[in-house]
Specification:
The protein is of the alpha/beta class. It has one domain: P-loop containing nucleotide triphosphate hydrolases (Rossmann fold, 3-Layer(aba) Sandwich), CATH 3.40.50. Strands 2-3-1-4-5 form a 5-stranded parallel β-sheet, sandwiched between helices. It is globular. The two termini are about 15 Å apart. Its cofactor is Mg(2+). Its EC number is 2.7.1.71. This is Shikimate kinase. It holds the Pfam family SKI.
């Protein structure tokens, strides 16, 4: 890549956006930012607390502001929260300001990868994680597909293999 374009990783929770994003940034010599971590840093509180105090709507407003700023950086790999694409503004910024890679995964893999994670507010205190993930997928998958330049399934590959695949695809990417 002669010029370092931004790379945005989108997809559901448990798809591997943060893990793959770190690997990808390292391979490409780019900066890496996890938008959820950035929101927590700026708020001085974790996402679960923000959800408890401000609700999902308050969190989404914070997310929109942070993504507007982050997507204006140059040469950065950004992993977004699973629900970032719910905002039309976020979708517009992601589409216009870099290469959008949709990391797809199955509900089975999501259940497996998120079952011990206590930092997922939409799954907290819920008995039927699978049903929640299925509902989220119905709502969000079409939005991921709408703005994706490249779609990859992350179910069976290691983060390093996925990152190398992305590098190969980006080298051939023309917009």
């Amino acid at each position: 890549m002669a010029e370092k374009r931004n790379i945005f990783l989108i997809g559901p929770m448990g798809a591997g956006k943060s893990t793959i994003g770190r690997q990808l940034a390292q391979i490409l010599g780019m900066n890496f930012v996890d938008s959820d971590t950035e929101i927590e840093t700026r708020a001085g509180a974790d996402i679960s607390w923000i959800f408890d105090i401000e609700g999902e709507e308050g969190f989404r407003k914070r997310e929109e502001r942070v993504l507007n700023e982050l997507t204006q950086l140059q040469g950065t790999v950004i992993s977004t929260g699973g629900g970032a694409i719910l905002s039309k503004e976020n979708r517009k910024h992601l589409s216009a300001r870099g290469i959008v890679i949709y990391l797809e995964t199955t509900i089975d893999k999501q259940v497996e990868r998120t079952q011990r994670d206590k930092k997922r507010p939409l799954l907290q205190g819920e008995e039927d994680t699978r049903a929640i993930l299925e509902d989220l997928a119905k709502e969000r998958n079409p939005l991921y597909e709408e703005i994706a330049d490249i779609t990859l399934t992350t179910d069976e590959q290691s983060a390093k293999v996925m990152a190398n695949q992305i590098v190969d695809l980006i080298d051939n990417f023309q917009d």
